[in-house]
Amino acid sequence: MTVLAFDWSFAIEKLVLIAIVITVSLVVAMYATYAERKVAGFMQDRLGPNRAGPFGLLQPLADGLKLFFKEEVIPTNSSRFLFILGPCLAMLTAMMTSAVIPWGGKVELGGRIVDLQIADINIGILYVFGVVSLGVYGIMIGGWASNNKFSLMAALRGASQAISYELAMGLALIALLMLTGSLSLRTITEQQIQGNWWNIVYQPLGFLLFFICSLAECNRAPFDLPEAESELNMGYHQEYSSMKLGFFLFSEYINMFISCVIIATLFFGGYDMPFVDEAKLSGVAALITGLVALFGKTFILIFIFMWIRWTLPRFRYDQLMNLGWKGLIPLALINMVITGAVVLYTMKAH
Amino acid sequence: MQLLTQRAKPVDRRPMNWIEKIYLWNIFKGMLITLKHFFKKKVTVKYPEVKRPFSPVFRGLQVLNRDEEGRERCTACGLCAVACPAEAITMEAAERLPGEEHLYREEKYAAKYEINMLRCIFCGLCEESCPKDAVYLSETFAPANYSRKNFIYGKQDMLIPDPIAHPEEYAVARGLREQTTKSPS
């Protein structure tokens, strides 16, 4: 009977990996809030938070603590179950995407070959897109359950933005997938390590489109209409307070981190350190260089996200929809057709 | 139309060309500007550690002055209370008893001298009206407080430290003033 045989060490390894990945995502997202405020301050000739701890490094903890101590208000007429489900769903979908990301190569630790990826499923990219689409539910349920017409309108606004830009995002990605011939993020990374160039060289337009769309997907400026602090006074999380609001805000930072990792994996070679041949390094050294490379790329991308946020003003809603439907989708289609033609001509197709 | 300043620039209303229409180049230019500011020197003053210097004519909290021998200058004439447009000053006079000559400069002194810091507008008219140079406005401002009662400053809050017993504290309380104003005769 081998059907019921269960590899316990495998399960434990994956559980440990999941715990590590989730902790790392949470810590990075926590410090992304700090980095955001620092970047904002520096770009506006200020210093940013510098009171809590050295250089203000304890600021995220103080912010979290503040959110916990805030009064928790659940509106009387809200649908209580859904009201609580909203932020949970937002958080859950934000975390779930990290499951298919290859954080590093396979490494031999204590006689076991450990795969630094929670699940190498062969439809990794599709999985990411599926989960990202689920993220809209967090917004919609949160806005709807509040039983407040303005929250509902904001939720509709956010959902329609997310859906519009997901289309262009998917189309931009199809061109890339024509080149790689695989949906597995591990395979895509390994192809970039073995090949001479990262995918951004083959797909500059695709990268640009994907990058713009992920800005919109993460609800970041200049596409932050779902919340629009200054003119619309928040959005779908209008009625939320305390840590439930914190969950919504925090899930956006996790989303930003994860989408930066995905951009780094898809277009910048993932854990591939440039000018270093990983095959010559020993197991642990290769692992560390890989992690340094991936996180370095991710942090640079996160900085660019913030840099854009503190440079550009917000789009108007009609401009947002114009850009998405009349700008990005046709461009993505053209990119797709050209890539397809080139792939067919060179017979690079796998 | 008559222009009010020389700095007005006419708005460029030409239709956007191709480069401008796709925005990317202009976005890039804008991002360079923010990056330049990222590395600029910051204007923030780290307040509790670094304090901006006040101007010598800054009008902050009132200080009740002493003379060189450490005697209170105030003679409770009430001119400051009369001059005060906000009516923040109240005082009670008392007669100097024999043996108190080392405490009070004149035969009459202020037994109670109170300024309500919630009323005070820090105009400095008390300082100007004082014939004895007994009150002046310092370079600190009234600190925050938890109750209205504590904003009524009495003599113990405002009296300058004794120049003989505590010369260092006296010098701090005098601040920039010593260098800028002539010592009264």
Task: Describe the structure using short key phrases.
heterodimer; A: 350 residues; mainly alpha; two-stranded antiparallel ribbon; 2 strands; 67% helix; B: 185 residues; alpha+beta; Alpha-Beta Plaits; 3-stranded antiparallel beta sheet; two-stranded antiparallel sheet; 7 helices
Word description of this protein:
- The complex is a heterodimer of chains A (350) and B (185).
- Chain A is mainly alpha-helical.
- Chain A has twelve helices and two strands, in the order H-H-H-E-E-H-H-H-H-H-H-H-H-H.
- Chain A has one domain (9-346).
- Chain A has helices at residues 8-43, 59-69, 80-96, 124-145, 149-180, 185-194, 199-202, 204-217, 229-232, 242-267, 283-309, 317-346, and strands at 106-109, 112-115.
- A two-stranded antiparallel sheet of chain A has the order 1-2.
- In chain A, helix 2 (59-69) runs antiparallel to helix 10 (242-267) and helix 5 runs parallel beside helix 12.
- The radius of gyration of chain A is 21 Å and the shape is globular.
- In chain B, the strands form two sheets. A three-stranded antiparallel sheet of chain B has the order 2-3-5.
- The radius of gyration of chain B is 27 Å and the shape is elongated.
- Chain B has helices at 18-21, 24-38, 79-83, 125-129, 155-158, 167-174, 177-180; strands spanning 62-64, 89-95, 108-116, 135-137, 152-153.
- Helix content of chain B is 24%, strand content 13%.
- The chains are: A mainly alpha (350), B alpha+beta (185).
- Chain A binds chain B through residues 39, 41-47, 50, 208, 307-308, 310-312, and chain B through 24, 27, 30-31, 33-35, 37-38, 40-44, 46.
